[in-house]
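Just wondering, does anyone understand what follows?

——
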Amino acid sequence: MTDAAQRSLCHGVARSAPGNVDETPNTKHEAPDTPDPRFLAGVALFNRHEFFDAHEVWEDLWNDCAATDRRFYQALIQAAVAAYHWERGNATGAARLYHSGRRYMESFRPVYLGLAVDAFWDAMAAYLAGALGETNAPAVAPPVIVLREV
């Protein structure tokens, strides 16, 4: 991993580019008919617990995607980086990225590109329970993304 990649990861990757802030949380989004192969590649990496690599693939997609999808991919990136931080003992970073990612994906509920949004974030919360302040929470395996047929 390069120093620049490490720095960007440590500083909360996938911030909106200047002037590209979309703060409309209740907007409904229509998913494209066919998901970008990079979305599916990121899902496969995430499911193998290769969180840094998943974030890299999704970040590439985030840079190229339509404005309407930017928050969705940004939320996935933040979920992957939250899991990455949690694996490395950075509870503060994991919690911060969990909360912002969940917020960013709110307008894509209930299902977007086959991802059941609430179920995904509930599984992330269970995995990150210790980072989210639940000191007696049992250890839970990282979530697995199962996409629904669209």
